[in-house]
Design a protein that fits this description.
about 60 residues, mainly beta, two-stranded parallel sheet, 1 helix
Length: about 60
């Protein structure tokens, strides 16, 4: 079984996945949502009452009316 060391990766799309290769690992590394995508999760961009990945929306839906 190969030693894969530390595994890292970033998810950049809604359906994105990171495949962890077969083998043993050193327990290090992490997988996260890409920082560009994280920056898009703004409460004003999400409808009020909806929570996406821990960000609760504040957009009322009547902005600009």
């Amino acid at each position: 079984m190969p030693n894969r060391g530390s595994q890292t990766g970033a998810i950049a799309t809604k359906t994105g996945t990171v495949t962890i290769q077969q083998g043993y690992h050193d327990g290090g590394g992490s997988i996260s949502i890409d920082s560009t995508e994280q920056a898009k999760l703004i409460a004003n961009n999400i409808r009020e009452g909806i929570t996406i990945l821990g960000v609760t929306g504040t957009m009322s839906g009547s902005e600009g009316v």
